[in-house]
Amino acid sequence: MATRSAQRHYRAPCPGCGAPVEFQSAQSTHAVCPYCHSTVVRSGGVLQRLGTMAEVFDDHSPLQLGASGRLPAAPGAGGAQAFTLIGRLQYEAAQGRWTEWIALLPGGASASLAEDNGAYVFSRPVTPRHTLPEPGHLRLGMTTAINGKAYTVAAHLQAHLVAAEGETPKLPPPGQPFAVVELRAADGEVLSIDYGAALPEVQAGRSVRLEDLQLTGLKDESAREEAARQFGCPRCGAPVHVELAASKSCTCPSCHSLIDLAEGVGGELRHAVQREPVQPLIPLGSTGQFEGAPWQVVGFQHRTGVEVGDDDEEVFGWDEYLLYNRQRGFIFLVDASDGWSLVRPASGAPKHKGGAQSATYLGRQYRLTSTYRAETNYVAGEFYWPVQRGQKTSNDDFAAVDGKGILSREQAPGEVTWSHGQRLDSSVVAQAFKLQDRDGLFTRQDAGITSITLGAGCGTVVLLFVVLLVLLIVLANCSGDSGGGYRSSGGSWGGYTSGGGHK
């Protein structure tokens, strides 16, 4: 079991209410009083009150102050390293909100455990060997070198501190915007540059799973059985329940309006009417078994796309289910006409040059299969980022040359998101949700090996031509006056617009 590092703690009365405020880390300069929420700064042996900090908003995370764990040792390094969570910072940008937990390491050093597009990244401070460029010089998608290592700029946004609790080695003024640039490397490393201080602060980290951190002191499961938030739909007045406290948007079960929760249930609720509701094949709230763990369906969206350079503007569509697991975060289950796939945002950035026909990620080669413009057309359930109907992105889809692997690049204002995953047989999806009695509704193309490097014989080419000709004749006779079809480009494989945190 992880234990707190052996060092002298500092405790002094809060200048606001007199309650004890404790500093466990010698590097911590700021703290938030747990009783009156005063923001205090430590100057020698004196605490000075700077003002009052807004209360943190509760979220889906099982983490809490005082929780401790062990970070698995890196290859070639020593043993596992203990840590304790002593502070929490919550940030917001136009792309969404995220949380950063301050971790106390042995000897008093600090690190952070932060949300990263529905997952978690454990990061440590890094000292740059050279002066960092100004944020305006780091353009989205460009490649640059930091301390001799190549990174791709994945996000460039203006953020501000929303709330904090516990103790922190830094504390930017609440509500004051500052630039945050996120870079990702081909080996999965995430580099974050925080321009909120006089000297930019840099952290480097990697994706982790909470279940691998041997965490103790987490929120009790019974404590999460709190009553769901409820309010009246701003359009029809019907009751709307919000199950996940971190949700930034949801839909009304009665009129299907899409409701913006970015300002909280107590704020002004903006809504958008959604006509012609789409019925998900897998009901919201269903639980399925994937990767040896239960995943609950908490969100659903239908998206459409148009191939770049397609003069006929043929529209194709696919469905994305947002799945949630308390320990592992969020993943996507994608239903496209050419098959099912299970994907998650990549923590790193594949090696890829703009406009190139290939990409490399974690040693696997991928070939470009489609470039298209995507749009969100219908939404149901809850999402941890502020999803909106009509959101548009630019997408590139890739397929692995040696098997089932899939890769997608999705670009929205201020952010580039890569997603990766594997195709699934339809029978696996139906079985995961115990819907074998409806197996026929899940049937798609087989998820077998689809290497794009395999050659085709002359007989195969002739057969394919004949089949294609017959299909074109049938479609021509059946098309009538309808515009556009339902097909798949391969889907975006879980790519999404501005989802989750960026640290």
Task: Characterize the structure shown.
The chain has 2 domains: 10-212, no CATH class; 278-442, no CATH class. The protein is 6% helix and 44% strand. The protein has helices spanning 426-432, 439-442, 458-478, and strands at residues 10-13, 20-23, 30-32, 38-43, 46-52, 68-71, 81-93, 96-104, 110-116, 119-126, 143-146, 149-168, 178-184, 190-194, 201-208, 229-232, 239-242, 249-251, 258-260, 270-272, 287-290, 293-307, 315-325, 329-336, 339-345, 358-361, 364-383, 392-400, 405-412, 415-424. The strands form 4 sheets. An 8-stranded antiparallel β-barrel has the order 7-8-9-10-15-14-13-12. The longest helix has 21 residues, at 458-478. The protein is globular, with a radius of gyration of 24 Å. 40% of the residues are buried.
Shape, principal axes of CA atoms: globular
Structural class: mainly beta
- Spatial gap, N to C terminus: 27 Å
| Mean pLDDT, all residues | 77
Low-confidence stretches: 1-7, 221-227, 449-503
Query: Which value, in Å, is the CA radius of gyration?
Result: 24 Å
> What percent of the residues sit in helical stretches (DSSP H or I)?
under 10%
Strand order of the largest sheet: 7-8-9-10-15-14-13-12
Keywords: Membrane, Transmembrane, Transmembrane helix
InterPro entries: DUF4178
Protein name: DUF4178 domain-containing protein
